Amino acid sequence: MVYPDFDFFNEPVRYEGVKGRMVRRSLGKTWKRLANMGAPEISTRLRQELDKRLEWIKPHFGIDHTESLPLRAVPGSFLFSPDQIPAIISTIRQQLPQAASTILEEADLICKHQFRLLGLDRLDYGERIDWHRDAFHNISAPRKPWFKINYFDPRQVGDPKIIWELNRHQHLVTLAKAYRFTPDPGYTREIFDQWYSWREQDPYSVGINWSSSLEVAFRSLSWLWVSALLENCSAAPPEFARDHLKAQSLAGRYIERFLSTYSSPNTHLLGEAVGLFFIGTVCTSLARALHWQQLGWKIILQEAMNQVRRDGFHFEQSTYYHVYALDFFIHARMLAARNNIPIPEVLDDAIQRMLEALASLSQAGPPPRFGDDDGGRVFDSSRNLREHLLDPLPTGAILFGRGDFKASNNVFTEEALWLLGPDAGDRFAQIEPASSSRSSQALTSSGFYVMASAEPVREQVVIDAGPQGAHSAGHGHADALSLHLSLNGKELLADPGTFQYGGDGAGRSWFRSTRAHNTLEIDGHSQAEISGPFSWNDLPQVNVERWLTTKNFDVFVGAHHGYQRLVPPAVHRRWVIYFKPHWWIVRDQVLGEGNHTLDIAWHLAPQSIPSHTADLVRIIPTADSGWKQESVKEQYSPAYGRSVVAGTIRFRYSGALPAELATLLIANNDTHDSFVSFLKSNPQPGVAAYQSEAAKALRGAVFGAGGQSWTSGDWASDAELLCYHIDGDGLHSVLLCNASFAEWGSQELISPANVRRVYEWERRSGALHQVTPEPED
Question: Rounded to an integer, what distance in angstroms lies between the CA atom of residue 517 and that of residue 339?
Fold first, then answer.
């Protein structure tokens, strides 16, 4: 999430600088900001500033914000009907017994006022819940007009995300489901005790829980879930139906007035639109219901075009927010279908492209957590770990009949039952998993390049070579050219996550810095400069120079210019060559002049051993490279608010540029006990040759000098790039790029009369055969 602007003319404080210190925004910056706004934005912001104060003042003059309600309210259809609930509950018991058990366990803790919020376990809120309290830091936010609360100040509010997460009231949905399982009146009693307690403590526009329209939207969605789960339930107080409608009328009023159209036009605006759409569609007796439905639906469809890139990935460059947005789109789509609202092709197209992108990044297990990890979810806030990012795929498999989505996640979810009906499990079982047409693939708009193989095991490397994010890259990290490696569902080379948004700023700064990612840092600087908790300066430009995928090899070459601001400037170029399966050569070049300190990090997942002989991945630099190696303990955040210790392998060089280091990655324990050598040679100026040897097999790459002839060992060519795999039976496979001739020993592979950009051969039945490669992107 992004914290919305709460006081346009007098924003009290912001974090600025890498130490997260708080400074007052200068008048000059405010005027500069004004100058960059168009008339519609200025008008909207002025109107919102006036509304903030009017909404606060009106009750003091006896003006009630709630509308008059009809005696009989006929609601629209929710995601499921009351008569479907018993069948859904029965299916959960039979097909998902662990989910049923977890719901009841969580419900019992909630009744004790112990909550699992974000990555924090069992926060105790005591006998009487203080809805303004961050129980982790034991700080309560002040109870004053919401626009006067500075939620960036940890001394005043602690971590506002913890407060807001509790006040989303998703735990009330857990209680309602638990009641449907038992039924124990203690669960419903707790629901309504908490609900009315909240209304008493949080009158309209008072306190931190009214300071974000997205949080209001989330809360309204939870109330709709509770109302739907308990419809026709005798345990509900007789006045609840009307009180609920009144509460929804205030929520809709607030969201409409304070849409994040300009302050946070991302998942904030999308989530608010979904909240309006749900209120307007379900609470049809409210006077503005139709308007809210139409406004919310219009924004949802607009954002399906605005926020989803051509390749299907969400424009904030965050995997977590990609799933966050995808969930919003799917839930809104299913509500529209339930109420016979036509589904435009643009929405289904966006949803399928987002599912395809998620599946592409999840071929060897859960996807990498590039960018920020918010910690919240649209359905079941406890499903906020990396493995839960696969949840939309089973729903998408059923909804669109896509076996490729099932191939990426063959695990049925409770969410799919509530969205698609009690027969969703049977429909899912009937779908035949179908792999996509090719494993390695590129999401070129978002800049994610996937090197993957399914045989003999599922493995993949994902390279982040895209923009840092949309707008000021608020949810992006300084991770250009970072790698993530997975093998058979296990994370090996990891993205350490996010940890927190607030606090003193130090944790926030480290987790999104270049140092926290599997890429190269220069002189202790990140690739971009932090200018606030959700903004950056000097965003790097990343250029992908080559992407080639063939039967036996994949080749990626990319560079970024984030270090051009240094004195003297430098450029980081990274080559990644995949020898299918299991082996990668990563060649890092730093181009420029002068002296610099270079640091390349390889962050291991917590289960790995912090050394170059870790159980499932080997990290081997070239011998005598001149780079110093160390193993250190650093932080890994499995979910927002929680961190654990994990190992990091670092390679450091101090000296003159240009400089380079090649690293061999082996994602397989077959070679764990065998000797592996990795050597570099420079057979002639401008030519670099790297060769690894293990178990009588050679894998190597020769980087040529741009059309000049060269020789290296048994090889002679003028290739720009030559990759080879030699086993005990001879040449197994070879790839050449931009070569006019090539010889291996006495064997001629390319004659000058047969010049092509890309050649690949492999041995079949004891002889070399030419392979037609995939087209180069």
Answer: 45
